[in-house]
Amino acid sequence: MTDHSRYLDIFLREAGEQIAALQKGLLELERDPEDRSRVRELMRFAHTVKGSARLLGYDGVGELGSRLEDLLDEIAAGKRSADGPTIDLLLAGTDALARLVDAVGRGDDSAFDVDGFLAAFDRGEVPAGGVAKTVDRDEAGFGDTVRAGVKTLDRLLNRLGELLIARSRIEERLATLKGMAAGLDDATATALRQFHRDLEGEFREVSALAQELHGDAMTLRMLPLSTLTGGFERMVRDLAREQGKEVEFRVTGSSVELDRALLEELRPVLLHLLRNAVDHGIEPQDERVLSGKPLRGTITVSACHEGNSVLIEVRDDGRGIDPVLVREAAVRKGIVSKEEAELLSDEEARYLVMAPGFSTRDFITDVSGRGVGMDVVRQNVERVKGEFVLRSTPGSFTVISLRLPLTLALLDAMLVRSGGETYAFPLSFVAESFKVAAGDIVTAGGREVVTLRGGTIPLVPLASLLGGGERPAVPPSGRIEAVVVRHREQFLACSVDRVIGSTEVVVKGVGEQLREASSLSGATILGDGTPAPILSVPWLFSRAERGVRTGFRQAAAELQAARTRGKVLVVDDSLTTRAMEQGILVSRGYETEVAVSGEDALEKIRRQRFDLVVTDIQMPGIDGFELTRRLRAIPDYREVPVIVVSSLAKDEDKRQAMEAGAQAYIVKGNFEQGTLLDAVEALIG
Amino acid sequence: MEEKRETGYDINSILSGMKEEYWRGVSEVQEEAGETLECVTLLLGGELYAFETVHAAEVLRIPKLIRVPGVPEVITGIFNLRGEITAAVDIRPLLGLALPEIGERGRIVVVKGEKFLTGILTEGIVGIAPLPLDRYETAGATRSEYVRGEIHDGDRLVLLLDLPKLLASPAITATGH
């Protein structure tokens, strides 16, 4: 055994596994101290570490392993009980073992005072000093694996994302190519079509490969939830012990895999939620006894897949969140006024604990972070396009559910057009999209709502939520397209110009400069290379709460009014005049048709019915007087009003127009928008 | 940052080329040259502004900018800089300048801050050349806090921007609320 280095890797890996198993086993033993068979198993772990270490000459590790083995042996033999202090001692020894092995791996175990530690250990003292968390690190990274930098993986994924975007561009080009055959002679067209088919075949293959590659690269970034929760068990236990509480920590679904970047955002969130659960959720033991609960509190972290998201719940069977206390504290802190607090439902009041600056002695102590914590939790969850739901029954339990996307790199999104730009909604927040007739929009509680899903949902224009000040437009069809988004079991309908549809998009970070932009959940790049914001639904809700301009009913009413307005024929040989008059009339909702001469006008009235005619006098061919006279001769047009608009200002001309049968005469010199409209409105309303 | 250089053109080589050209021009006219500062000179609010070229990454024609809701107005929009979402800022209001329309000659100068790249909208790029430091004066109190000094280059007055200060300013960064 001269060449240690050859075996060091193997030793480190083995020792790491054994130590992790030892730690886990000890915590289980603590839960069930009577299980002797487990003690034997633990002895084996300690024994293995001891043996391998001695073989390689790591005497410190060997000695420590040996002491642990001895102590466990005493328990197994019934000479010692697996009580709290003993378990503490064993855990401390295991931690020291982990740190020592870690130091050996780095080649600098000389600084470690093994003898001093062993002396304290033998006296039954738990040596002071923090607990090194080495378990996570050693679990992975050996065997049939290679290490890759996270940056390398991210770059790989970024490039593959670009590849997918390029793919959609090629797809568009292929469609163009296909269309080119149209204008060609037969032979060339046939050849081109054949070429297109072949090229498309090749493209499909490359395209599928690109998709698979992207999928593979994505899985490289996936890690099981246990990479996080492994370290939490110990933290929960120690924290509870410090406060004289007993807590059983359970994890279910720890093999559920999530994107690494997501786990990173999740770590502080879970840490904080667990600390809160221990500090404020789980009651002191005497209190638990009084309320007839088991002495030992239970905190559960569970994870499961739900559709294309992961649902993570942190549950404690503690005292719950009392909405009355939360209201009081929020008022005291000036987060809401007394009146506002009273208006909140119990459900809504609980969410006040997530407001920035919220802190109450009744709820948040110094241990879990001076009232900044829940705010950060909310921000982190929103940043990863996750959703946060809080449920609680005072005196009984608190459950905090986080719904998170599987990955941060790809997103199922619904694309919409609004205000000439394309936006994406995370599909997990979209309940549905629908079209509603403007007439079905009603007002309730000062808000415009639509009836959907058995209830009423507020309808707001997306453009207004995004900061546009314009009035909502009701399309000529009278039907409004809208996307219903969901957040904390509430719904909001956002009207858009057009729903493009749902698709998988590549999510791009927006960088440090826009990192705090709470309106965004990132951005994606569309097929044409332009970016599209991915909207944060919680942000949209907060905007909607602050109130935005809606006014669908008014817009719809105007549209309705315009539709019943009449049809006007504008006759003039001057293009400018025609355009101007038409513009004025259309802007007020009149439908118009133009004619370039008297003859043209007569032709047009044969084909359709007009409610009013506006005509010039001097035109090539028959003039306006003649046109009016001829109109009066047609039975259908005997009563149809005629307005003469002319640059002739003499009274003689006006008189002639009246005699011909015109109802109004407007001189172009003082031709103003108002004059024409007044006349038209006076005649046909 | 490394991969940026692979795909984009390398501004440093272009700049050094321009610099050589400039020096050739200068040496033909006059031999002695005082101390200078290598700067990008640009047009903002109809006035000449400059900052050290080391801050600049590249110059682009103005692409389609997509508005971002709920951010300071200075952040005009985002654009696609070779796959990276990058924000464009119109810093003219921060400098207290007029806002003439940015037309055909308008460009974006992509600059490197400590934490991010961002594009500064300009009415045009005047040039990339050394400015004479012996004609430098510290900016008067009436100038914007982002202006470090004034350089009288011939009959032109060029205002030197304090770019690091500008890029570190919360005014060009989105805030949470």
- What would the principal axes of the Cα set say about the shape of chain B? globular
Largest interface pair: A-B, 33 and 29 residues
Strand order of the largest sheet of chain B: 8-1-2-11-10-9
Percent strand of chain B equals: 35-45%
Low-confidence stretches of chain A: 129-142, 360-372
Query: What general outline of chain A do the C-alpha atoms trace?
Result: elongated
Order of helices and strands of chain B: HHEEEEEEEEEEEH
* Cα distance spanning the termini of chain B: 30 Å
Q: Give the helix level of chain B as a range of percent.
A: 10-25%
- Topology, number of strands of chain A: 23
Percent of sequence in beta strands of chain A? 15-25%
Proportion in helices of chain A: 40-55%
Strand order of the largest sheet of chain A: 10-14-15-13-12-11
Q: What is the fold named in CATH at topology level of chain B?
A: OB fold (Dihydrolipoamide Acetyltransferase, E2P)
How many DSSP helices of chain B?
A: 3
Give your account of this protein's structure.
In chain A, a hairpin with a 5-residue loop joins strand 17 (520-525) and strand 18 (531-535). Chain A has 24 helices and 23 strands. Residues 129-142 and 360-372 of chain A have low confidence and may be disordered. The radius of gyration of chain A is 38 Å and the shape is elongated. Chain A has 685 residues and is an alpha/beta fold. In chain A, the strands form five sheets. A six-stranded mixed sheet of chain A has the order 10-14-15-13-12-11. Chain A starts with a helix and ends with a helix. Chain B has three helices and eleven strands, in the order ααβββββββββββα. Chain B has helices at residues 2-7, 11-29, 163-168; strands spanning 36-44, 47-52, 56-61, 75-81, 84-89, 107-112, 117-122, 124-132, 136-138, 147-153, 156-161. A six-stranded mixed sheet of chain B has the order 8-1-2-11-10-9, covered by helices on one side. A five-stranded mixed sheet of chain B has the order 3-6-7-5-4, with no helix packed on it. Helices cover 18% and strands 40% of the residues of chain B. With 177 residues, chain B is of the alpha+beta class. Chain B is globular. In chain B, strand 9 and strand 10 (147-153) form a beta hairpin. Chain B has one domain (34-173): Beta Barrel (OB fold (Dihydrolipoamide Acetyltransferase, E2P)). Chains A and B meet through helix 7, helix 17, strand 17 and strand 18 of A and strand 4 and strand 5 of B.
